[in-house]
Amino acid sequence: MEEMEIKRDAWGSKIGFILAASGSAIGLGNIWRFPFVAGQNGGAIFVLFYIIFIIIIGLPILISEFTIGRSTLKNPVGAFEKLSPGSRWKLVGGLGVIMNIGVLSFYALIAGLAVGYFFKILFGDFTGITTGAQSEQIFSLFTSNPFVTIGLLMVFIIITAFVITRGVSSGIERISKILMPVLFLLLIVLAIYAVTLEGAKKGLEFYLMPDFSKITVTTFAQALGQALFSLGAGACIMITYGSYVSKRENLFKSAVTICFFDTMIAILAGLIIFPALFVMGMNPEKGPALIFVVLPSIFAKMPGGIIFGAGIFLLISLAALTSTISIMEVPVSYFVDERNWSRKKATLIIGSTVFIVGIPSALSMGAVGWFSNLPFLGMTFVEMMNILFGNYLLTIGAFFIAIFIGYKWGIKQAVKEIEQYENIFNFKILWAFSIRFICPVAIAIILGYIIITKNYF
After folding, report:
1. pTM value?
2. d(CA 107, CA 140)
3. According to the model, what pLDDT value does residue 369 have?
4. d(Cα 221, Cα 51) in Å, to the nearest integer?
């Protein structure tokens, strides 16, 4: 065990860990998904409950994952096996490994499309486009070309794999120190531009002034689902990242910092999207098509629209990359730790597997009819993958992590790990109450909600 700990890769600095973990949490969930879900669920009132659920559900799960990872210095499967030897709890870690392969297969596709749109807008493909119908036609032609969708999927996986092969400190940490400051700067510049547009006030009111008459059961469910999705709570990513953390690191403060950055990025994304929508008189409830179909149709009519539009898709691409790196690291760490594979071998095999699994998703964007409308399910293959891995398995993973910490491994053992080297966990009583009672109940409710209503987040 001691030999393994010495050889194991680790973060080179505290700021590197914070930026990498924040980059993991910050991704498509914040910049692509958050604005349209907020738009569909009442704007500011959704944002209010989202922040509440980040604090009472997302943060406790995040702390739990960090604690499991650092306590064991292992990947998710090895971590659960070490803390509960010979039990079936390691299946939760195995679920995390499989989940991340599945998620990455369609996540990298959406990220690749964002890269493609960055160049399309920059090169003027949307010049003169003023209606949603025209924009939708461009999107359909773009995504129905299998060489484009599969090619962009492959490019994004290759970029992600290249970073992973460099290791934790030399690859993940180093690229995070570059990407995260660029991401923040780009967000701030775009947000300042959007809120200073003439007529932006209505968008800001919709986004920042809660209307309590819009509260519904769906508002609660979607806000909780978005909190889990945004942080990746339950995906075992933070178990993996936590396994590279120094024993002297204050896990509670780190988790709070990461949740703050994650939430701030989502809020800033809304400050970019909603003012622009209301300035151009567009509907904020357009759903997943908001970024790829609705926004491009308004760029031609906005002052500086081409630069603004290209900036948005560059932002999405950078945010997605910080997440795909963390997603791929989970299965790679499993094969490095448990199968003694080299990092390069594990990355090559996982990257190839993800690419193959992702091809049906790429074809389901319009290139192949069968994948675009799955028999008996009535949905595209990529939608099915999102529901299976991004909804059901993610929620199930979060539920079992809460149960494991609260009732199997134990609160005392977890607190002991957190409070090493005189790190004081001031909110341990509130955390313990949340992880034992609030988190399992709330997550079980959201799981029941999506099963019964099929209203996925």
Report:
1. 0.93
2. 19
3. 61
4. 13
Read off the pLDDT of residues 7-64 as tens digits, 9 standing for 90 and up: 578 998 999 999 999 999 888 888 878 888 898 899 999 999 999 999 999 999 999 9
Nearby residues of 452 by Cβ (< 8 Å), 6 or more positions away:
none
Q: Which residues contact 267 (CB under 8 A, 6 or more apart)?
A: 47
Owner of token pair 């990461």: 258
User: Which residues make Cβ contacts (< 8 Å) with residue 405, sequence separation at least 6?
Assistant: 64, 67, 68, 411, 414, 435
Where do we find the tokens 């993958």? 385
What's the gap between Cα 151 and its chain centre? 22
CA 11 to each of CA 19, 179, 241, 367: distance values in angstroms, whole numbers, following the listed order:
11, 16, 9, 42
Structural contact between residues 5 and 244, judged by C-beta atoms closer than 8 angstroms: no
Please report the beta strands in 249-363, taking only residues with DSSP state E, as ranges in sequence order: none
Structure letter (DSSP) for residue 291: I
Contacts of 437 (CB under 8 A, 6+ apart): 406
Q: Which domain holds residue 283?
A: 2-453
The DSSP output letter for 387 is I
Residue with tokens 């978005």: 226
**pLDDT, tens digit, 9 for 90 and up, residues 403-430:** 999 999 999 999 999 999 989 998 999 9
DSSP 175-202: HHHHHHHHHHHHHHHHHHHHHTSTTTHH
Torsion sign, CA atoms 354, 359, 364, 369: negative
Work out the average pLDDT over 76-92.
Answer: 97
In whole numbers, what is the pLDDT of the chain averaged over residues?
Answer: 90
The total of structural domains in the chain comes to 1
Query: Euclidean distance between the first and final Cα of the chain, in Å?
Result: 41
- Which two structure tokens, joined as six digits, stand for 68? 């499991």
State the CATH number of the domain containing residue 369. 1.20.1740.10
